[in-house]
Write a structure and sequence with these properties.
Blueprint (H helix, E strand, L loop, with lengths): L11 E8 L2 E9 L1 H8 L7
Antiparallel strand pairs: 1-2
Length: about 45
């Protein structure tokens, strides 16, 4: 896709396990469908 210079926005949720002050595990989920919609990269995209 060609660059547009437009800002995008999407939500993420991150959870981390901390042991003795250090991150030992990380889980993350992002709303990539929202991102794809903004880029017009979904079937029937906007």
């Amino acid at each position: 896709m060609a660059l547009t210079g437009k800002a995008i926005r999407f939500e993420t949720v991150d959870a981390m396990r901390v042991v003795d002050g250090r991150i030992t595990e990380h889980w993350g989920v992002a709303n990539l469908f929202s991102l794809m919609e903004q880029l017009g990269a979904t079937p029937g995209g906007r």
